[in-house]
Write a structure and sequence with these properties.
The protein has 208 residues and is mostly helical. It is 62% helix and 0% strand. It is built from ten helices and no strands. Helix 1 (5-18) packs across helix 10 (189-199), helix 6 crosses helix 7 and helix 8 crosses helix 10 (189-199). It is globular, with a radius of gyration of 16 Å.
Length: 208
């Protein structure tokens, strides 16, 4: 598969034109970083990201598993959710809207600390934690899932089958591949995410 700058930007535009959740995702990309950097948010703001992670599949994700994960997250004490989000914000930085803020240097980030804090919550594994990272720092992080991993692998940017569930080390490897593509093409993570998600249907059937 081709992950040139022109292809990525074309696929990202297709995503914006065709994906039914795009408008609400764009709103959250613009508002979530500052929302969680402050103290004026509620349980539903955090629940939205967990729900987004599963519901963007538009019914393709097993409904029983989705409900179990969402219910497990709702059972967390809200003080624990606040502590985890505070730690994640401190680790990856509240970088603001994609249009307004550039990518931070790696020495300003501690992805493992963010993953550790978030996965301490019930209902949050590394994959869902990566969804939080994507909205906390949308110009820097791409959420890991079978689709985004498969497209990167089909493009030769990543080796191996999607690890289900992914570990923190798996996410590090995935993040390195995303950064390599972003550095080469000059796109940000939110653009790359949309392109990878939109390109999944074009990945070869035998892609890892």
């Amino acid at each position: 598969m081709d992950l040139s700058e022109s292809t990525i930007r074309d696929r990202a535009r297709e995503y914006a034109e065709a994906e039914p959740l795009y408008d609400v995702e764009r709103q959250h990309v613009e508002t979530v970083p500052m929302t969680f950097a402050g103290d004026e948010y509620g349980r539903r703001d955090a629940q939205w990201i967990v729900r987004w992670y599963f519901r963007r599949y538009l019914g393709e994700y097993p409904d029983r598993v989705r409900r179990e994960r969402e219910e497990a997250f709702r059972d967390n004490a809200f003080d624990d959710v606040i502590d985890a989000l505070d730690a994640a914000v401190d680790a990856v930085g509240a970088m603001g809207a994609v249009e307004a803020v550039g990518t931070q240097h790696d020495d300003e980030l501690d992805v493992d600390a963010a993953l550790d804090a978030l996965t301490a919550l019930d209902g949050v594994d590394v994959a869902v934690a990566s969804g939080f990272c994507q909205f906390l720092a949308p110009s820097r992080f791409v959420a890991i899932d079978r689709r985004t991993w498969t497209v990167l692998a089909a493009a030769g940017e990543l080796d191996g089958d999607y690890p289900d569930p992914p570990s923190a080390a798996d996410y590090r490897r995935f993040d390195d591949a995303c950064r390599a593509v972003m550095d080469r093409t000059g796109v940000d993570a939110w653009t790359l995410y949309r392109a990878l998600w939109r390109s999944f249907s074009d990945a070869p059937a035998d892609a890892p």
